[in-house]
Amino acid sequence: RACQVVDGWMGKMKADGRVEVPVAVLEAARRDFCAERVGDDETLATIKKHFAEDGYIVDPHTAVGLTAAERMAAHNPETTTQIILSTAHPTKFSEAVSLALRDSPAFDFESDVMPEEFKGLLQKERRVIDV
């Protein structure tokens, strides 16, 4: 049933550009979920912070999760354990990672981030088959 309701909302959003969520559903969501917004500057600062603190190179999606979790931790009971799932690799976001760490002399994208299998990939002949 829940899947059908959400599917209906998504269809309404696509068709009308908006959806009206019942008050009871909204209140339940506010009780069970929380959300944060993290801007580009904060994302870059988080990448830089984690590299400076422990040498960990964070991709932008993980940086957003880390920043949001840090903010939310202030409102959680001490017994709450937060888990941040990182599903992206910094290589996929080379521009953002390189921008965040451009002033870090210890950072070298090729040796610190780039998987061995990717090195030289952009110099290879490109083969594309249109289907």
**Total strand count, please?**
0
Number of helices: 6
Low-pLDDT windows of residues: none
Rg on CA atoms, Å: 20 Å
Distance between the termini: 38 Å
Give the integer mean of the pLDDT values: 92
Shape: flat
Describe the structure.
With 131 residues, the protein is mainly α. The protein is 50% helix and 0% strand. Helix 3 (40-54) crosses helix 4 (60-73) and helix 3 crosses helix 5 (94-100). The longest helix is centred in the first third of the chain and has 15 residues, at 2-16. It is flat, with a radius of gyration of 20 Å. The model has no long low-confidence stretch (mean pLDDT 92).
Task: Name some characteristics of this structure.
131 residues; 50% helix; mainly alpha
Would you kindly provide a brief summary of this structure?
The chain is built from 6 helices and no strands. It has helices at 2-16, 23-32, 40-54, 60-73, 94-100, 109-112. Helix 3 (40-54) crosses helix 4.
